[in-house]
Amino acid sequence: MTQTFTVEQLQASVLLRDASLLILDKPAGLAVHKGPKTELSLEKFLPALRFGLRENPQLAHRLDRDTSGCLVLGRTQKALRKLGRLFSSNGVSKTYWALVEGGPKHDNGTIDQALLKVTGRNGWRILPDPTGKPSVTDWRVLGRSDGATWLELKPRTGRTHQLRVHCAEAGFPVIGDPVYGPTQKPERLLQLQARSVAFSYYEAKPPTAVTAPPPTHMLELLKRCGWTAGR
Asked: Greatest CA separation found in the chain?
């Protein structure tokens, strides 16, 4: 099923905008970069997100195409450089929500598992490998239901597909994951959201902290796991 996105939709998804920063609630299914198999991406909409400035905003980090939620962009080159330093130095706190199959036995824990990008005939994927890059994810159970668990995930590192691989290798893959889940054609969209970001950008001001609302495609399972509006 081909998804469609509009300028109005992307403009309405802005969670924060000031002279330097733009934070979007990126919809699931929209890639951030154009690729050989991706005709439509966020890059097409960047001119519509200038909001009066001469330059297009630019990505400070990435989200997977199927992951929804908080995406940070710099509105100027100066802002982009500063955001780059914050992300590379772990100066940005990122919190994700995931709905996973089954679930962990305990209520919280840490996954410390190095990850390696491996390329083969059918493309690339991320695999656990002791020779890979150090990758650490803290997790906490927020709710449970029959066959599903609602997790809060806090990555200490920012590796590609880190959360999806860590959850899958721990025995509770993210529901709807077509790559690391048990089925290649899941019935649901990926149940993973970049819930919030927080970082100290302005020295004389409180930290910038933004939270995205739960996406509609996750609401059904979130409610089954105990989520209520306002939580």
From this structure: 52
Query: Exposed (0-12), middle (13-18) or buried (19+): which is 114, by Cβ within 10 Å?
Result: middle
Q: Quick one: which of 204, 172, 202 has its CA closest to 86? A: 202
pLDDT at 41: 94
28: pLDDT strictly greater than 90: yes
CB 195 within 8 A of CB 129: no
| Separation of alpha carbons 173 and 213, rounded Å | 23
Q: Tokens for 29, please give them.
A: 């299914």
Phi then psi dihedrals of residue 171, to 5 deg: 100, 5
When pLDDT is cut at 50, 70 and 90, the band that residue 229 belongs to is: confident
Please give the sequence-ordered ranges of beta strands (E in DSSP) within 30-114, or none if there are none: 58-59, 68-74, 92-101, 108-112
pLDDT of residue 2: 59
Supply the DSSP symbol for 38. B
Residues with a catalytic annotation lie at 64
Instruction: Say yes or no to pLDDT of 121 above 90.
Output: no
**Rounded to an integer, what distance in angstroms lies between the CA atom of residue 151 and that of residue 140?**
6
